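Justification of resources, computational component.

The compute hours requested in this renewal are based largely on the per-chain cost of generating structure records like the one below. Each record pairs the submitted sequence with a full structure-token output. That output is archived, and it is also reused by downstream analysis tasks.
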Amino acid sequence: MSDSIRILFLGDVVGEPGRKAVHLLLPQIKKAENIDFSVVNGENSAAGRGITPKIAIDLLRAGATVITTGDHVWDQAEIVHYFPTEPRLLRPGNYPTGTPGAGSVVLDTDKGKVAIMQAQGRSFMQPPLENPFIWAEAEAERLQALGIKVIFMDFHAETTSEKIAMGRMLDGKISCMVGTHTHVQTADDCILPNGTAYLTDAGMCGPDDSVLGRATESVIWRFKSGLPTRFPIAKGAVRLCGAIVEIDTTTGKAINFKRYTHLLAPGDI
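The structure output for this chain reads:
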């Protein structure tokens, strides 16, 4: 068994353009980057709001090992009944006890056990959930007590301060924490002092010429008028954003960490 494992994380998949890009590129990325395990945030994959069972199945078939979600997780009603049947689809772990699904999963790989966990922030986020710091710290300690070394976390949150604080709190307790939700990739990828890889936001997998994946004109009109309107998914070139981390399977500490981005021209999909 190798002494390290390489994990690919792809940020929020936005609508059909994002899905098509992931289906096309994920197998290529995994081969080119020697990826052992892949995590995809799919919470905007159904026309920009939520995820359906079919989309989840298609993402898993495309090569995602685990799918995370976020504040739009329940926007497609049929997903509620799918959660109990698919442990590789996660919702934020700081929902109240009894909520369908789970906030973490442990999977066996040829590199050993890998745990993926997810929490949702509370600053400027709806719905307000239980304290993510309390849940995340307890969950990391629970996983460590099981002897699991490789622990990856998706923290779906709005503010940089909340994400940075979470990363600092979990430094040395998990292998990697990557933030999602704001759809804009940050440039602060690093390995923290106690060995946890950290990135405030992975960015999105969606239309590049857009406002967070939505048609630019519609969003600008909303800001100018203050009136409600529809936000259709933008068209054109699609950018995939995320991160790749290499983790020592013996210590659980990150060895290498880098942001990932790839732009697909409109004719490539």
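Residues 117 and 139 are 8 Å apart (CA to CA). The mean pLDDT is 97.
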